[in-house]
Amino acid sequence: MSPTFGMVLYRTALTALAKASLVVMICTILDGMGGQAPGTGLRVAVLAFGLVGAVAQGRGMRAEREAAYEQAAELYAVALVNYFICYVSSLAHGALREMGGS
User: Which residues in 78-93 are b (16+ Cβ under 10 Å) and which e?
Assistant: First the structure.
């Protein structure tokens, strides 16, 4: 039985939320332990996950042009998760900056 669009979207959203929470937590802990300015790890996460999302989106578009629709869908989901992590990291960095961090 093939999953419905809603089920796939729900799983993708849960995966993105869990990974984004983990990334923000790890970046915050590493900044605190490493003696770096608060938010340094979050800026790196924004750049890294944005780049990975862009690469996955580009590969998804290429797979779609080659009529590999299942592979394209998987790559688009990967891009979506990475863009969400990038967005949440950016929001966390902005909130940290408002509180008086970097």
Answer: bbbbbbbbbbbbbebb
Return d(Cα 46, Cα 12) in angstroms, integer: 19
Instruction: Name the phi and psi angles at 57, rounded to 5.
Output: -65, -45
Cβ atoms of residues 50 and 82 within 8 Å: yes
Q: Rounded to two decimals, what is the model's pTM? A: 0.86
Per-residue pLDDT of the chain in tens (102 residues, 90 and over written 9): 677 888 888 999 999 999 999 999 999 899 889 887 888 899 999 999 999 999 999 999 999 999 999 999 999 999 999 999 999 999 999 998 888 755
Q: Would you kindly state where each structural domain of the chain is located, as residue ranges? A: 3-100
Q: Which of 47, 77, 48 is nearest to 60 (CA)?
A: 77
